[in-house]
Amino acid sequence: MSNGNVTYRSDENVKIGQLILFIDGKPHAYATSATLNLSANVIDTSNKFDGSWQSGKVGKKSFTVNSEALLTEQPDTLSYEQLIDKYIEGAPVEFEFGTLKYDEDENTGDISNVAIDKSKPWYKGNLLITNCEIQSQSGDLAKNTLQTQGSGPLLKGTNTQASNGGSGTGGA
Questions:
Q1: Per-residue model confidence (pLDDT) at position 77
Q2: What is the pLDDT, as a whole number, of residue 115?
Q3: Nearest 10 degrees: Cα torsion 155, 161, 165, 166
Q4: Residue 13, phi then psi, degrees to nearest 5
Q5: What integer pLDDT is reported at residue 168 of this predicted model?
Q6: Got the DSSP string for 56-72?
Q7: Environment class of residue 168 by beta-carbon count within 10 Å: exposed (0-12), middle (13-18) or buried (19+)?
Q8: Using CA atoms, how far apart are residues 167 and 157, in angstroms rounded to an integer?
Q9: Rounded distance, CA 99 to CA 27, Å?
């Protein structure tokens, strides 16, 4: 029988803001949010034999990836300037989305030592940059927001136990 104390164990099983977006092998520098959204169109297959219930099947699938970051001009990072250049170019960019992993001490703030943890679920594919916004308000940090649309399939990355040292473009 319990001693009356409640033990809360859910904290061990939930993620706290650890997901990150990499584009062309670089992290979205100083990101504060990252979102992968999956959707599918439903094709109506309703007919007289369904009675009063609608039926359907999944049609075309799509995905979007969005991220917001603090504005930076730091060399060798995926800065707002590089994102705008990629937007102007209009070509698809390669992306990876997954759990953030530090190769060194995570308390340094150094983004050159981060990667996608490929021992955990991660995803990859191609994106088209549809919106790149720069925000600057008096007395606040400047930010950039990135909105993208998937182009082609979303692929689940292969989980590996070995360290990949950076994002890379590991197998799917």
A1: 78
A2: 87
A3: 30
A4: -115, 10
A5: 46
A6: EEEEEEEEEEEEEEE--
A7: middle
A8: 12
A9: 12
Nearest to 64 by CA among 172, 157, 154: 154
Position of tokens 């061990």? 12
Here the tokens at position 103 are: 């190769």
Mean pLDDT by 10 residues, the chain (172 residues): 62 74 90 95 94 94 96 82 92 94 67 84 96 93 95 92 45 42
Domain coordinates in residue numbering, the chain: 17-156
Exposure of 169 in the CB half-sphere (CA atoms within 13 A): 8
Q: Interior CA angle at 40 toward 154 and 63, to 5°?
A: 35
- Coil, helix or strand at residue 89: helix
Q: Which residues contact 63 (CB under 8 A, 6 or more apart)?
A: 36, 37, 38, 39, 125, 149, 150, 154
Could you say which architecture CATH assigns to the domain 17-156? Answer: Roll (2.30)
pTM: 0.78
